[in-house]
Amino acid sequence: MILEAKNLKKYYYADQGLFNTSKRVVKAVDGVSFNLQESSVLGVVGESGCGKSTLAKLLLRLITPTEGEIIFGPAINAFRKDAAIVFQDPLLSLNPKMRVVDILAEPLIIHRYEKYMDRVAELLGLVRLENGLLRRFPAQLSGGQRQRVCIARALACSPKLLVLDEPVSSLDLIMQKQILDLLIELKNKLEMAYVFISHNMAVVEKISDSIIVMYEGKIVESGQTAEVFNRPNAEYTKKLLEAAR
Amino acid sequence: MNKLLQIKNLSISFKNNEKFVNAVNGVNLDVFEGEILALAGESASGKTLTALSITRLLPYNAVINSGEIIFNQRNLLNSSEGELEDIRGKEISYIFQEAQASLNPVLSIGRQIMEPIIVHQKKTESQARAMAVDLLKMVKLPYLIETFKCYPHQLSGGMNQRVMIAMALASRAKLLIADEPTTALDVTIEKEIIKMLLELREEFGFAILFITHNLHLVEKFAGRVAIMFQGRIVEIGRTSEIFSNPQHEHTKALIESIIKI
Ligand SMILES: Nc1ncnc2c1ncn2[C@@H]1O[C@H](COP(=O)(O)OP(=O)(O)OP(=O)(O)O)[C@@H](O)[C@H]1O
Ligand SMILES: Nc1ncnc2c1ncn2[C@@H]1O[C@H](COP(=O)(O)OP(=O)(O)OP(=O)(O)O)[C@@H](O)[C@H]1O
Ligand SMILES: [Mg+2]
Ligand SMILES: [Mg+2]
User: Fold this and answer.
1) 3-state secondary structure (DSSP) of residue B45
2) What is the model's pLDDT at position B261?
3) What sign has the CA pseudo-torsion B231, B207, B33, B170?
4) Best interface-test mutation with A: which of B186, B218, B251, B256 has the largest number of A CBs within 10 A?
5) I need a labelling partner for B148 at 20 to 30 A (CA). Which of A18, A66, A245, B62 fits?
6) Which residues numbered 31-50 in B keep a CB inside 8 Å of some CB on A?
7) Alpha-carbon distance A177 to B261, whole Å?
8) Does the beta-carbon distance from A47 to B97 stay under 8 Å?
9) What angle in degrees, to the nearest 10, is found between the helix axes of B109-121 and B125-138?
10) Given this model, what pLDDT does residue A235 score?
11) How are beta strands A218-224 and A210-215 bridged, if at all?
């Protein structure tokens, strides 16, 4: 096992206005538990606002849970090196003042890679970007190019655990397929495990071994991918699959 | 049908390391009143730049080498910044590609939607508030009162995308330019939002320039489609014809990829 989430919760408190002192609780993540095995992929689906990105940030300890815990397996030694994330909004997650070359080199330098420039060139090739982009700033790239820079950055130190939040949403279908194939290949070769968030059911079906379906912060369905796709139980899962046709 | 917008022979380049690189190459594109025209094609082919050039929102280092953009009998490439400012708020509105990053991080959601209504449509504070609440309802955002006071970082990716859509709809523009407007939405909400856009279009008659890599949506909703590849439009025509009989290699590859994922 590489990761175990135990009854994870993240609550936010929203103001209800000047005179109403009671606060409405936004239960962004509300009691989520699962296990993730080495070299396997857990797909996470669910409607907009159901807590997927919050879960992603919890798993990488970027925000503190209101309750519950996350346990890492022995494969995760050096947390900062062995676990990485691709955020949902590429433009927001890239430092606007850094050039692509520095964005990709930064994690490598921190983790004392020798010949890090070779690795930067290799990463660029993996995500099908040209060398000419290295001197650019994030704002000078197309949406899909930015998304691929984020993926390359996350792959830089060959993490054992990778959380991907809608990682191919801005890519055309040909590029989506290439990036998915790349992720699958790397996973097999380097024994990586992914938590893969997407609203695209076809993409999730292709890459995931097992799936959780979230609704209002809770898991409403989970199981092996084929099982969930062939015999959905929860109403929401049926609706999702229906709409995807 | 009348032409609402004409892009003629548009070329855009960038100066990179002292040499100019072409990003958009001799693009011709007409948008007719009330139509839905999809613009699809590979990543980095120049779709966003073409869309941004229409009201000259291009990045500072971009150079327009040639072209005309005719809207209301005027060439927008020669219009003053003041005129363009007016057109952007009133006649041509945008849903930008990366919603969260395009919203103002220090303004509440409600304020962001109200502000252009007050400025461009000369509404009072309370009228604008009422309109903003209606718009948020239309894009299916839950818990209106709190959402109104939230800041973008407190909302999910798909919620921000819907805020962006609400803002664009506020203006009642004649042309809505939607750059990947539903990438952060799950299929169920995507369907509802598209349905709502089509209903509004029926009611107000605006045209939509719909940039997307989702060919399912193109096939279902766009009357015409243009395919972009390496800075050029390589194919354009009625959607049904292009899907049943694609000519260009890239179009063929794109259509094949629908089934392949
Ligand atoms: N910092 C925050 N403060 C307050 N509420 C928040 C915060 N972050 C998220 N939320 C709320 O938590 C809920 C879940 O948000 P989250 O971003 O996890 O959704 P999501 O499943 O990723 O949605 P999407 O598919 O639209 O990206 C939403 O209602 C959101 O408004
Ligand atoms: N400010 C800039 N400086 C230099 N090159 C740029 C700049 N902005 C965009 N480009 C380049 O212009 C090309 C077209 O970019 P554009 O954003 O129009 O692509 P796109 O078709 O919208 O792609 P995507 O589907 O990935 O969003 C890309 O190669 C991009 O790297
Ligand atoms: Mg999200
Ligand atoms: Mg784009």
Assistant:
1) coil
2) 63
3) negative
4) B186
5) A66
6) 40-44, 48
7) 6
8) no
9) 120
10) 87
11) antiparallel
d(CA A209, CA A227): 10
Listed residues: CB within 5 A of ion ligand 4: A 142-143; B 48, 97
What residue type is B207 in one-letter code? A
Distance CA(A174)–CA(B120), nearest Å, equals 41
Decide the pairing of beta strands B3-16 and B19-32. Answer: antiparallel
Q: Would strands A3-14 and A67-72 be described as parallel, antiparallel, or unpaired? A: antiparallel
Q: Which H helix or E strand runs over A147?
A: helix A143-155
What stretches in chain A show pLDDT beneath 70?
14-23, 245
Report the run of H or E that residue A34 belongs to, with start and end: strand A24-36
Q: How many CB pairs under 8 A join A and B?
A: 132
Binding site membership of B14 for ligand 2 (Cβ less than 6 Å): yes
Q: Given an 8 Å threshold on Cβ–Cβ distance, is B14 in contact with A140? A: yes
- Residue A225 CA to residue A42 CA, distance in Å, equals 9
Separation of CA B199 from chain center: 17
Contact predicate A86/A162, CB 8 Å = yes
Of A132, A175, A203, the CB nearest to B43: A175
Check CB contact under 8 Å for B43 and A90: no
Q: How far apart are CA B228 and CA B108, in angstroms?
A: 37
Q: Do B146 and A16 touch (CB under 8 A)?
A: yes
Locate all alpha helices (DSSP H) within chain B, ordered by sequence.
47-53, 81-90, 99-102, 109-121, 125-138, 144-149, 157-170, 187-204, 215-221, 239-244, 249-260
Tens digit of each residue's pLDDT (9 = 90 or more) over B184-240? 888 888 888 898 899 889 888 999 999 998 898 999 999 999 999 999 999 999 999
Closest residue (by CA) to atom 4 of ligand 1? B154
- The alpha carbon torsion through B224, B190, A201, B251 (nearest 10 deg) reads 10
Q: pLDDT tens digit string along B67-107? A: 999 998 899 999 999 999 889 878 999 999 888 888 999 99
Condensed to tens digits (0 to 9), the pLDDT of residues A6-62 reads 999 999 986 655 555 556 788 999 999 999 999 999 999 998 999 999 999 999 999
The CB of A217 under 6 Å from ligand 1? The reply is no
B169-B175-B178 Cα angle (round to 5): 65
Q: Which two tokens stand for residue B27?
A: 């693009």
Nearest residue to B254 via CA among B95, B38, B48: B38
> What CA–CA distance (Å, rounded) separates B34 from A31?
48
Q: How far apart are CA B12 and CA A157, in angstroms?
A: 37
Q: Which residues of chain A lie closer than 8 angstroms to B97, CB-CB?
A: 143, 170
* Exposed e or buried b per residue across A58-73, where buried means at least 16 C-beta atoms within 10 angstroms of its C-beta: bbbeeeebbebeeebb
